[in-house]
Amino acid sequence: MHTSSDRRFRRLSTAAAAVAFALCAAPRLVAAQEAVYGGEDLTSPPKLVSAAAAARLVARSFPEEMRKAGTGGTVQLQFVIGKDGKVEPSSIEVVQAPAPALGDAAKTVAEKMQFVPGKKDGSAVRARVQLPIVYKP
Question: In CA terms, which of 5, 9, 21, 43 is 20 to 30 Å from 57?
Fold first, then answer.
């Protein structure tokens, strides 16, 4: 038979273990959320690895029904490029789009783009960029 003090002790032990786990995990969470720099803070901005490859991605992503209808335009995206030159998918945001389908297509393109990462004082850093993606019917 368990007494009320045994139950209280177990609850406190469980709570203490949860707090200890949270404290151990906190430094990793902070490290994972490294600073993101804007263009004015960078010594060297990110650059596309291949403009030709990016153009092919854009052409392939153009929604067929919009191309046939002659609907195009410029989608303005904002996103973070990691230290490895890859776009962080969760950071992609459509700032402006002439149609939702073009915004969605542009997000798909951004996820596949490769960049030379931005640099600050000679070291690769995470960088926030805005990029126009133009769809011409």
Answer: 43
Q: Which tokens go with 26?
A: 């906190």
Question: Which range marks the domain in which residue 69 is found?
Answer: 36-135
pTM for the full predicted model? 0.74
Q: What is the C-alpha to C-alpha distance for residues 134 and 33, in angstroms, rounded to an integer?
A: 31
Query: How many distinct structural domains can be found in the chain?
Result: 2
- Rounded to 5 degrees, what are φ and ψ at 38? -95, 170
What the block records as the tokens of 4 is: 């009320």
What CA–CA distance (Å, rounded) separates 25 from 12? 20
- Looking at residue 19, what DSSP letter applies? H
Question: Residue 109: which CATH number?
Answer: 3.30.2420.10
Residues β-bridged to residue 129: 79
pLDDT tens digits along 2-17: 555 554 444 433 333 3
Same domain, 59 and 9: no
Nearest residue to 77 via CA among 130, 113, 127: 130
